[in-house]
Design brief:
Layout (H helix, E strand, L loop, with lengths): L13 H4 L1 H10 L8 H13 L3 H14 L4 H13 L3 H14 L4 H13 L3 H14 L4 H15 L2 H14 L4 H13 L3 H14 L4 H13 L3 H14 L4 H13 L3 H11 L7 H13 L3 H14 L4 H13 L3 H14 L4 H13 L3 H14 L4 H13 L3 H14 L4 H13 L3 H14 L4 H7 L7 H13 L4
Length: 476
């Protein structure tokens, strides 16, 4: 912690060069030698830096015996006790010290830390506020230490409160900037997170982790070009930054730049050739590029590496389905569902293949299961309704679409479908209402309506309604 770095700053000075050596010699020879307070500060910090808290506490005890009235030595002992998580002992000592100096920010800070560890956040917060009130020197560091404690505890609103105050004190404290950016990211405030990461990078442009974190935020915001640029900076600083390479590939794939994504994924395999997920993503890229044989090959490699990779089984099944190897694709979908029966996509695909193979009951169960898992997906409802429609069960298709309206926000393709079903079922009045709604939501896809229902192109009222809507809204 920066609060305790006063003595440490002299670590390379001639004055302290032999202090630890002389202290260790004293212990080995069991002869008591005298050290002044600053010597003991350095000795204790030396052991703290090495996480040797038992040795640090021993040095504190000797220091107290030589300097029984030194407040600095006792504060240092409290720090060591806190580092050992001997909270009750640290608390007892700190309370005693607070009676002597109740405005000492170091004492108040550690009291806050004690109560925070004990889970008494209200008391901790009170002491942190007092520490802030009475701090004058290095105030930004004290506020930073409070803030970073809350970061470690996952209390990001309070972390931001103190880190912002630290920033006001010193806007070029790189530690403060980084943790502010991180905390705002956790709070979902992308704008402020980006702002502080950029300020941090103005100070340290070679911080690959900051560029990497920026890439994640930009990807989440669907600002893919900026995300890729951020990952590229991280990789320029550290070409072996595998997480940045993998995320860059994912972002390129999300941006539908499949050839570039493929190159990144294949490059990633140099670092982790046993990543079954990487093989799945490579297969997905080949699938999107319509190179189905390569896609199937990489899905099979993923399964070979990890037979429990459900996405690998599902992906291979999709390739087989596209290539109309339906019976074989069923085997892969069954395996995917066995590994993960909570994925709606798996059930939907399983339903489609069973429907294509005229396995009515199996398809019905699968479609119902996909809706049960994810009832807000319009495509699943449409697929389910079409299943009934293709079996000439138009009443069930209409009923399914009405059920979908309860779960799905207004969706144009769904409304076009419902209008088509109603028209074919002879309910023209209701069909007209739904067609008008569909046109209002998305006029541009109305040609698909006739692809789904080619027999309706001759319906005069439909052509008239579409024409009137287009003229009234200057769409033609």
């Amino acid at each position: 912690m920066a609060m305790w770095e006063g003595a440490r700053e002299n670590s390379e000075s001639k004055e302290f060069a032999g202090v630890v050596k002389r202290y260790k010699k004293m212990l080995s020879e069991e002869q008591m030698g005298f050290f002044d307070v600053s010597d003991f500060e350095y000795i204790v910090d030396h052991y703290i830096d090495k996480n040797q808290f038992t040795n640090a506490l021993q040095a504190c005890e000797i220091a107290v015996s030589q300097h029984p009235h030194s407040l600095i030595v006792k504060i240092k002992k409290a720090q060591v006790l806190l580092g050992q998580l001997k909270v009750e002992k640290a608390l007892e000592l700190l309370k005693m010290l607070a009676e002597i100096e109740n405005t000492n920010p170091e004492i108040l800070l550690m009291l806050g830390n004690c109560y925070s560890i004990q889970g008494d956040e209200n008391k901790a917060y009170d002491y942190y506020r007092k520490a802030d009130k009475y701090s004058f020197d290095d105030r930004d560091e004290l506020l930073y230490n409070i803030g970073v404690g809350y970061v470690q505890n996952g209390d990001y609103p309070r972390a931001v409160f103190f880190l912002e105050k630290a920033y006001d004190e010193n806007p070029i404290n790189d530690n403060v900037l980084y943790d502010l950016a991180f905390s705002y990211d956790k709070l979902g405030n992308d704008e402020k997170s980006i702002k502080f990461y950029n300020e941090y990078l103005d100070i340290d442009p070679f911080a690959e982790s900051a560029w990497y974190n920026l890439g994640i935020i930009y990807t989440r915001r669907e600002e893919y070009d900026k995300a890729i640029e951020a990952y590229d900076f991280a990789l320029a600083i550290d070409e072996n930054y595998t997480s940045a390479l993998f995320n860059k590939a994912n972002t390129l794939s999300t941006a539908e730049k499949y050839s570039e994504a493929l190159s990144c994924y294949l490059d990633y395999l140099r670092f982790d050739k046993n990543s079954s997920d990487a093989y799945v993503y490579i297969a997905e890229c080949y699938f999107q590029l319509e190179e189905y044989s390569k896609s199937y090959h990489y899905y099979k490699l993923a399964i070979k590496l990890d037979s429990k990779n459900a996405d690998g089984w599902y992906g291979a099944g999709i390739v087989l389905m596209v290539e109309e190897n339906l019976a074989e694709s069923l085997v892969f979908f069954k395996k995917a569902i066995k590994l993960d029966d909570s994925c709606a996509d798996f059930w939907n695909a399983f339903g489609k293949v069973n429907a294509a193979l005229d396995h009515y009951e199996e398809a019905l169960i699968a479609f119902k299961k996909s809706i049960e898992i994810e009832n807000t997906n319009a495509d699943f409802w449409i697929t389910f309704a079409d299943f009934y429609y293709n079996y000439n069960q138009i009443g069930l298709a209409i009923e399914t679409m009405f059920e979908a309206e309860i779960s799905v926000a207004e969706n144009a393709p769904m409304l076009y479908k419902l209008s088509g079903y109603l028209t074919e079922n002879g309910d023209t009045q209701l069909a007209r209402i739904y067609l008008r709604k569909a046109l209002m939501l998305n006029f541009s896809i109305h040609p698909d309506f006739f692809l789904d229902f080619p027999g309706l192109q001759s319906k005069r009222w439909i052509k008239k309604l579409i024409g009137q809507f287009a003229r009234n809204n200057n769409l033609w």
